[in-house]
């Protein structure tokens, strides 16, 4: 059986942290639940980082699968991840250009040093 080679695609997203919830957001991300991390890995998400600059959160991750939509749907359907989002979502405020229901907006890559 010949497997299709996986391609790695870089993603970056932005969202605001609510200033009054900043400390809570940082506390949560200092100890992300192992089951949330496992679901991300099972959905072929790797090298996931979230940076903070003022009230702006900047996420970066690499996707190394062959069905991004299905893998993202699996994350969204995961009960533990949904519980995690119940804690983190109130800490966030969407930015202009965010996808409906997400809050996070995709950032377009304009440069990459390989």
Quick recap:
By secondary structure, the protein is of the alpha+beta class. It is built from 4 helices and 5 strands, in the order E-H-H-E-E-H-H-E-E. Strand 2 and strand 3 form a beta hairpin.
Present the secondary structure layout.
Blueprint: E1 9-17, H1 22-29, H2 34-42, E2 45-53, E3 56-63, H3 68-77, H4 79-88, E4 92-93, E5 105-107
Antiparallel strand pairs: 1-3, 1-4, 1-5, 2-3
Reading the helices and strands in chain order gives EHHEEHHEE
Give the total of beta strands.
5
The radius of gyration computed from the alpha-carbon positions, rounded to a whole number of angstroms, is: 15 Å
**Number of domains in the coordinates?**
1
Per CATH, what is the topology?
Alpha-Beta Plaits
Output the number of helix runs: 4
Which spans have pLDDT < 50 for at least 5 consecutive residues? none
Strand fraction: 25-35%
Outline type: globular
Task: Summarize this structure as a short list of keywords or feature phrases.
32% helix, Alpha-Beta Plaits, alpha+beta, 4 helices, 114 residues, 5-stranded antiparallel beta sheet
Q: Can you walk through the features of this model?
A:
This protein is an alpha+beta fold and 114 residues long. The protein has a single domain, classed as Alpha-Beta Plaits (2-Layer Sandwich). It has four helices and five strands; from the N terminus they run βααββααββ. The protein has helices spanning 22-29, 34-42, 68-77, 79-88; strands at 9-17, 45-53, 56-63, 92-93, 105-107. Strands 1, 2, 3, 4 and 5 form a five-stranded antiparallel sheet that branches. β2 and β3 (56-63) form a beta hairpin. It is globular.
């Amino acid at each position: 059986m010949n497997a299709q080679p996986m391609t790695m695609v870089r993603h970056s997203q932005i969202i605001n942290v609510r200033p009054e919830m900043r400390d809570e957001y940082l506390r949560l991300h200092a100890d992300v639940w192992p089951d949330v991390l496992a679901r991300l890995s099972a959905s072929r998400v790797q090298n996931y980082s979230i940076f903070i600059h003022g009230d702006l959160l900047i996420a970066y991750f690499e996707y190394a699968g062959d069905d991004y939509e299905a893998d993202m749907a699996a994350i969204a359907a995961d009960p533990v991840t949904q519980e995690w989002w119940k804690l983190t979502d109130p800490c966030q405020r969407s930015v202009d250009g965010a996808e409906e229901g997400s809050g996070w907006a995709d950032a377009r890559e304009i440069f990459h040093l390989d």
